[in-house]
Amino acid sequence: MRASAKSHLSVQPEKLIDSCGRVSDGTRTVFGYCSVNCEGRCILNFHLKGDELLWVESDRSIDDAAGNRQIRACLRGRSIREWINHADRLSYPLRRVGRRGEGRFERISWDEALDAIASNLSRVVQTYGNEAVYINFASGVMCANIMGFLHRFMNLYGGCLDGYGDYSHSQIDAAMPYLYGARDANTPSDVRHSQLLVLFGDNTFETKMCGAGGSVHLKDALAASQVRTIVIDPRYSETAANCADEWVAIRPGTDGADGGGPGLRDDRGGSRRPGLPRPLLRGLRRGHPAALGRPRIQL
User: Fold this and answer.
1) Phi and psi of 279, rounded to 5°?
2) Can you tell me whether residue 3 is helix, strand or coil?
3) HEC assignment per residue over the chain
4) 294 in helix, strand or coil?
5) Which residues are 48's β-sheet partners?
6) Strands 228-232, 196-200: parallel, antiparallel or unpaired by DSSP?
7) pTM of the full predicted structure?
8) Among 4, 208, 265, 292, which is least packed by CB within 10 angstroms?
């Protein structure tokens, strides 16, 4: 048995860097932030020469300390220069001139592009009604940077077809009111008051490596409280490696059965959910490797 990884979980301080020498070549600094959809919105300082982005650094406004953290970008934010300067990034409108899939386009002006969009939107609404206009969830930078502006625009134009749920937490939205009465939850920092934390398919330490937001509060709470933590995940994720006291390595695709298992009883208990075979129910009840993939691993 190995000691819990949580003993090494405290965030290491990052001292301010002296960037004066690096900007003496004539670059100017533009303040911005990272728009990756991870809740962090970490600070980015863009150093430009003319209109070209030369290099990026993260938060350097303060020394990092407990309770006064730098909003420090992870590798995603720090590599944003590669996204902005990428050769395949569209920087002007293109109009298709060939058949779909041929890859033939011509460059047009912004005025031409806006006129074409307005003309076709007007044609669709007049021909089929506003019900024919649908705005997909998280289209473009919507949701990552700004919410609701396209719906507001369409509301001023007669409305549009709305959607239900999203790709991220529709099941949670439907299930939580039955368990807790509402879709509300405490902040991750409240974990410090718990005796047990179960992370089911939650890989916060990799998907939210940001310098601010829920992941930082979770790390601080785990480091301060040493709450017993169980991570259920088919793979040994960054989260399991950094904070798990116990890693339950289920087989890929069995998470639904594993989640429903604790609420079921096998045939000896007199009831079971239709459609689930008895061996699987017995395995779920006992934590059998045949159902869960591999035995539970104490870390």
Assistant:
1) -60, -40
2) coil
3) CCCCHHHHCCCCCCCCCCCCCCCCCCCEEEEEECCCCCCCCCEEEEEEECCEEEEEEECCCCCCECCECCCCCCHHHHCHHHHHCCCCCCCCCEEECCCCCCCCEEECCHHHHHHHHHHHHHHHHHHHCHHHCECCCCCCCECCCECCHHHHHHHCCCCCECCCCCCCCHHHHHHHHHHHCCCCCCCHHHHHHCCEEEEECCCHHHHCCCCCCHHHHHHHHHHHHCCEEEEECCCCCHHHHHHCCEEECCCCCCHHHHHHHHHCCCHHHCCCCCCCCHHHHHHHHHCCHHHHCCCCEEC
4) coil
5) 28, 53
6) parallel
7) 0.67
8) 265
Measured in whole angstroms, the distance separating CA 128 from the mean position of its chain's CA atoms is 36
Q: Cα(26)–Cα(85) distance, rounded to whole angstroms?
A: 19
Q: Report the C-alpha gap between 72 and 202 in whole angstroms.
A: 22
Structure confidence by residue, pLDDT tens digits, 233-283: 998 998 898 888 999 888 888 877 776 665 554 444 554 444 444 554 454
- Burial class (CB within 10 angstroms; exposed 0-12, middle 13-18, buried 19+) of 202: middle
Question: CA geometry: angle at 295 spanning 291 and 299, to 5°?
Answer: 145
Closest CA to 251 of 294, 284, 203, 299: 294
Structure tokens at 206: 């990799």
Give ∠ CA 200-203-208 in degrees, rounded to 5: 140
SS3 assignment for 187-251 = CHHHHHHCCEEEEECCCHHHHCCCCCCHHHHHHHHHHHHCCEEEEECCCCCHHHHHHCCEEECCC
